[in-house]
Amino acid sequence: MSTARTYGSWPSPVTAELVAHGRREYGFPQFQDGLWWQERRPEESGRTAILHEAVEPLAGVDARTRVHEYGGRSYLALPDGGFVFVKEDDQRMYRTSADGQVTALTPDDGARYADLTLSPDGTEVWCVRESEHAEGVTRAVVAVPLAGGEVRVLVTGADFYACPTASPDGRRLAVLSWNHPQMPWDGTYLQLIQDGTTVTLLGGPGESVLAPVWKDDSSLYVISDRSGWWNLYELAVDGSALRPLCPIDEEFAQPLWELGGRPYGMLEDGRLAVLHGRGDQRLAVLDPEDGTLQDLDLPYTTWHPALAVSGSLIAGTAAAPDLPWSLVTVDVAGGWAPVATPVAELPDPIHLPRPSELVARGRSGRAVSAYVYPPSDTSAGPAPYVVFVHGGPTGHVGTDLDLGKAFFTSRGIGVADVNYAGSSGYGRTHRERLRGQWGVADVEDVVAVAEELARAGLADPARIAVRGGSAGGWTVLAAITATRVFSAATSYYGLSTVEGFSEESHDFESRYVSELIGPVDPSTREPLARAHLTSCPVLLLQGLDDPVVPPSQSTRFADALKRAGVSHAYLEFPGESHGFHKQETIIRCLEAELSFYGQCFGFTPPGIPPLDLR
Length: 614
Description:
Blueprint lengths: L15 H6 L3 E7 L3 E7 L5 E6 L22 E3 L5 E4 L6 E4 L5 E3 L7 E7 L5 E10 L2 E10 L6 E5 L3 E7 L6 E6 L10 E6 L2 E7 L5 E8 L2 E6 L6 E6 L5 E3 L19 E3 L5 E5 L5 E5 L6 E3 L6 E2 L4 E3 L2 E8 L2 E9 L4 E5 L15 E6 L5 E7 L9 E7 L13 H7 L4 E6 L8 H5 L8 H15 L3 E11 L1 H12 L5 E5 L8 H4 L7 H6 L20 E6 L8 H13 L3 E6 L9 H19 L13
Parallel strand pairs: 31-32, 31-33, 33-34, 34-35, 35-36
Antiparallel strand pairs: 1-2, 2-3, 4-5, 5-6, 6-7, 8-9, 9-10, 10-11, 12-13, 13-14, 14-15, 16-17, 17-18, 18-19, 20-21, 21-22, 22-23, 24-26, 25-26, 26-27, 27-28, 29-30, 30-32
Helix pairs in contact: 4-5
């Protein structure tokens, strides 16, 4: 590769179209007379399809739940060959028979449903219902008759519910609950409902309990972070014993943003298929009797926290540095196979980035880890870089293949992805480092990585950009209004002010921001109040149907940039919610970003439409 070509302008086979196609998402598998799963398709305007053995039994339907706005599992396969699903446009639950007949099961009253499970007697779907009223939002665990009829309430009274799980004999219901201002990674309760009585078995404001699975009628498996790490325990139903299965400083779970998944399951021999690790999570088999943990010999290095288990088979969504996120089946007796993958043929490996870990230290002396993806040729010296800031902020970044990163690295722009304070995957202490410090600790960590890239001779200090989405967008805007490290910034539907956020945003996160910022004057941190101090050009990207971060968050910041005379561009996308899922949107955003960085860093990317900067 010739070094005469300018970083950022190299031709690349990793097109925006290829990246968009690679964003097809597979999730929430279920074994029921074969393998079922749901599949979000960018090329079909982000439609979520339900598939059975790679065949779509009800073509054209968009099966997506909007509970908590982040949704999750939106279907449940039934033993009779049919399935139940939540329809995106009205959020009602429908039953589809094996011959394709569709029947509505819930009233058209605006209620939403998620976390679907079949009742022990097979006559009802037990699930979480979210209802909006004039006085606010309420949630309950309800029973929906498969034959039709009145929906009945099983338990209510808490602000939030998740993971309704019936005992094998059907006499008890285990469920997770929590209340404002807690988030499910802060503190949850494991409750047991029997004969109309609710008893709390585990949890509290300082303990995050997740994913109950019944071992038998007298005991449950459950995940708790009471040790500082999400580890597995066996819990007696009468509360007489709580036994750690494998007490190690690793995570066996991830934050509960989406409903309906379990990060482990019981195999036919009584062992557990589990995910574990720091950051990346590997698939392993855990013997609950002696605590033996055995990693399976697989090419996949990280998994989504939603496994299906049947007999000796495991299904889940996995990836690796050289493998895109794919639906995979594994037989613990030996063998594995990809079931569905978004990209049939990847570009030559020379165009795909390989991660290496970089550890930087901020001004407080705290270590922060990032994965660095250098350009495919660095012989021309320090390169332009983009520092990626994940959302959440409890998200985390791993080493999975991301064609979105390859879009930049294959053209001569390096990428660094940061697990800043607040990220999951590294224990409760790391998650809580952001509590009361949002806009401070996260900014310090992102800046520390950028400065270390320059100090190590990897990045040109005059050409480092920062980009992030949602909570990561807040960190981006906070960083460029408080420091002068970055030369360009891209915010995907990022928060710019906490003023009015609780009233404008959805109920799930309505108290989250105040917990993250703490008891300080928000104007000392929030980007909108400091927009006149913005140190570089800004690209703002916003969906107009976003219920999590409303469009006003971006429009107000764009207006402030205009008043301050800061070069910027603001692109709006009708029909897009929180997180972009349409193929045309993904393409437009990536190409706009590349043109934006070209204008800021002094290169012209070939074949990319120019972005109009104001």
